[in-house]
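Support request from a user on the community tier.

User writes: "When I paste my structure tokens into the form, the page sometimes reloads and wipes my input. The last time it worked, I copied everything first. Here is what I submitted, just in case something in the input itself triggers the reload:"
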């Protein structure tokens, strides 16, 4: 199972720019689990993953991290 975890914050400008890109990615993959975390609310989860900057997107396969993106990337970066 592939899980995509997006860490962001309501006050973060780049996070707002990532939102429509991430929605497009979500709509293209019905077999992938997507999770959104606000680092100010889900502090424990952000700490567990060592989040130091937002936005950060972590892709896991079977519970193991296989990729990490910090910052805003194009849709193609997330789907390749």
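"...and here is what came back when it finally went through:"
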């Amino acid at each position: 199972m592939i899980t995509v975890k997006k860490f962001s914050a309501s006050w973060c400008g780049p996070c707002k720019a990532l939102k429509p890109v991430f929605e497009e990615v979500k709509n293209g993959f019905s077999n992938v689990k997507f999770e959104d975390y606000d680092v100010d609310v889900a502090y424990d989860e952000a700490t567990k993953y060592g989040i130091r900057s937002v936005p950060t997107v972590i892709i896991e396969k079977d519970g193991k991290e296989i990729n990490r993106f910090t910052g805003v990337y194009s849709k193609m970066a997330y789907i390749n």
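Agent notes: The reload is a front-end session timeout and is unrelated to the input. The helical segments are 13-27, 43-48, 75-79. The first helix runs from residue 13 to 27. Escalated to web team.
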